[in-house]
Amino acid sequence: MRKIPVFVSCPTSLSNEQEKRRRVIINILDELQLEARALGRGDYPTDLPLREVFILAKHCYGGIILGFEQIHVEKGIRKRNTKEARRLDKPISIPTPWNHLEAGILYGLKMPLLIFKEEGIEGGVFDYGITDAFIHSMPPAKITKDKLDELRQVFLKWFAFVSNKYHEY
Question: Which of 16, 112, 117, 166 has the least CB density, counted as fewest CB within 10 Å?
């Protein structure tokens, strides 16, 4: 049986803990006979990377955005040199900007989206109410059977939309 391709937006450089969390998601995709496609992980650009993302995404039937911390900021000022400027009152985590670019492309292609974020990730596609996709917490690396079953239910609901899109073509 041929696997249905889905686009996975995820940084290529992850900590060991982040990689284990990504693996939980990839394993569920495998169970559902979905093929995770991503630039820099099996698919490598031969052209401009943003164009390659678009071409790759056009050949997929759903998208997953994995918001992992890529930058940790201890101190700083939000909206510096504006009337709204304020000091950070706690450290912030920033995902790869590619998450936002790829989410925008997938949204524009009307792909069913599933969005996960690590604790502390916010802004853009990770803000609630920005897309019609619910924002989920990143699953833990060591997940209990009950939590894994709950996560599978989330994926099954999304899979119904992906499968429907696939069978339209």
Answer: 16
With vertex at residue 64, the alpha carbon angle to CA 135 and CA 41, rounded to the nearest 5 degrees, is 140
Q: How confident is the model at residue 63 (pLDDT cuts 50, 70, 90)?
A: very high
Q: Which domains does the chain have, with CATH numbers?
A: 4-69+95-168 (3.40.50.450)
User: In angstroms, rounded to a whole number, what is the distance separating the alpha carbons of residues 42 and 143?
Assistant: 26
Instruction: State the pLDDT confidence band at 39, using cuts at 50, 70 and 90.
Output: confident
Reduced to 3 states (helix: H, G, I; strand: E, B; else coil), residue 166 is helix
User: CB within 8 A of 50, min separation 6: which ones?
Assistant: 101
Residue 46, pLDDT score: 65
Contact 114, 65 (CB under 8 A): yes
CA–CA gap between residue 158 and residue 62 (Å, rounded) = 9
For the chain, the average pLDDT equals 92
Closest CA to 67 of 142, 157, 130, 4: 130
Question: Does pTM top 0.70 for this prediction?
Answer: yes
Q: How many CA atoms lie within 13 A of 132 on its CB side?
A: 7
Give the model's pLDDT for residue 43: 55
- Phi/psi for 161 (5° steps) reads -70, -40
